[in-house]
Amino acid sequence: VKESLLLPDEKEALKKELCCLIKSEDTKHPYSDAQLTNILSTQFGRSFSRRLIQKYRIQLHIPNSYERYG
What we know:
Layout: H1 8-24, H2 33-44, H3 50-59, H4 65-68
Helix pairs in contact: 2-3
């Protein structure tokens, strides 16, 4: 799904769910962007690109999985 096809409410819901997933993840096995994409695509019932999820993660100042490991 291209970002332009998402409604503002959908963008915010996606960002909120992204934050919740990362806050609840196991810090010894953090989710990769690809895993987050699969989880969110399943939850929202539509296909998202890994780049879109990566973009939102960066906008939210959330580090990548390697930096979250610990």
